[in-house]
Amino acid sequence: MTESIVVDTEAREVTPTEMIVRPAVAMAPVTLFGSDDPVKVVERASAAAGALVAVVNKQQLYSTIQGKKYPRVEAWTLLGSMLGVFPVTTWTREVTRDGKPVGWEARVEAQTLSGAIVGAAECMCSRDEATWRTRDEHAIRSMAQTRATSKALGMTLRFVMSLAGFEGTPAEEMPAHGAASRSGGRSSAEGARGAGRAAPTAQRRADAGPAPAPSPPASLETGESGSILAETLGLIDKALHGPDTAKAAWAEMAKLGRPGGLGPTRWLPTQPAETIIKLNQAMRGLVGEPGPDPEDPTEIPW
CA–CA separation, 189 vs 240, rounded Å? Predict the structure, then answer.
């Protein structure tokens, strides 16, 4: 049907507008697991955890700290890819103090392919940290992004990582002195070697009075991560439990000045950063863990 409209004595025909009917768009799932049924969410999260654990263990995408496995950034990005969550760096900026640059900070958002933000984190890397004091700007900036990546993905996917049997805290977040101070005793290998001298040592301690608790060096107390100390203690523990590496591990520590009768968890936190770094490299060689690529700062766990 058409109608005539007279405008300025001229007539034209107008076709009525047709109604366009579009198919209904399905609502996106309310969770990352495609269901809002709690039972199905747990089932699918457990299935993802089962697939994750085999790869992370085989490729050693974790750091062993005080006998616990802390997933590194590669493990977090793998888990994110499995569930359709990806880290997106939204900004990086230089941190200054009294007008002087001291480091970099970054914000990373965990997003789905549709652009939905499901997690976010802001982290920094500072020259206050011993390992980064003399590093290039690009390396410090990159590490800030690495830390923010692990944390942003962890904010959303931590429970899945825990279902896989790993610690929910990213390795990049572990403090240098926290793991050492929480350690309540020596490793089994050290205990076996020290059993014969336990009584004389106890007597000497009784005569001298209580020993002051060692404090970590100031250079390793500052900074957000500083996990080189915790990483090294984990490598030592792994070496001491190896029948072919325990003797060499004690020899390496003695070479760097460890007094007899003083375990690694009490001795190492009192040492300068240079000693800890040297021992870290030596322990990696003993247990067969390759060191980070110096040309790629994203591989450095501290």
Answer: 6
Domain span at 182: 178-197+216-299
Do β-strands 68-71 and 85-97 pair in parallel, antiparallel, or remain unpaired? unpaired
Instruction: State the Cα–Cα distance between residues 147 and 140, nearest whole angstrom.
Output: 11
Amino acid at 294: P
In a domain, 229, yes or no: yes
Number of domains in the chain: 1
Residue 277, domain member (yes or no)? yes
Q: Note whether residue 236 is domain-resident.
A: yes
pTM: 0.51
One pLDDT digit (tens) per residue for the chain, 302 residues: 555 555 455 555 655 555 565 665 555 556 788 788 888 888 888 888 888 888 998 888 888 888 888 999 899 999 999 989 999 999 999 999 988 988 999 999 999 988 889 989 999 988 888 878 888 888 889 989 999 999 999 888 998 998 888 988 888 877 653 333 333 333 333 333 343 444 444 444 444 444 443 444 433 333 333 457 777 887 888 888 877 888 888 888 888 888 877 788 777 778 888 888 888 888 888 887 765 544 444 444 44
At 84, give phi and psi (nearest 5°): 75, 30
